[in-house]
Amino acid sequence: xxxxxxxxxxxxxxxxxxxxxxxxxxxxxxxxxxxxxxxxxxxxxxxxxxxxxxxxxxxxxxxxxxxxxxxxxxxxxxxxxxxxxxxxxxxxxxxxxxxxxxxxxxxxxxxxxxxx
Length: 116
Description:
Strands 2, 4, 5, 6, 9, 10 and 11 form a seven-stranded mixed β-sheet that branches. The protein is mainly beta. The radius of gyration is 13 Å and the shape is globular. The relative contact order is 0.32. The termini are far apart.
């Protein structure tokens, strides 16, 4: 059974930091491109960052470049999103995503709220 379980969300003040984790099971994690998406209230889901399966190449949305860092630990089947210098506009539900060929899996999401 495929599972992607996000954790680490919560309330954080502007300028603060948060680290999201996504624990995967039920598929060959190391062979999948892993991504973080987010969806703010009333808006479409957007890609935040992704990391390839082999080279570990990373891509970021312009809105988070220089502030967020994606990483993965294939031994632990876990992908992370380190969020620094967060802004109120980063408030959203953050989703973990795994893709390989035609296979695509989603986590249930974790809420991140940036507010003072």
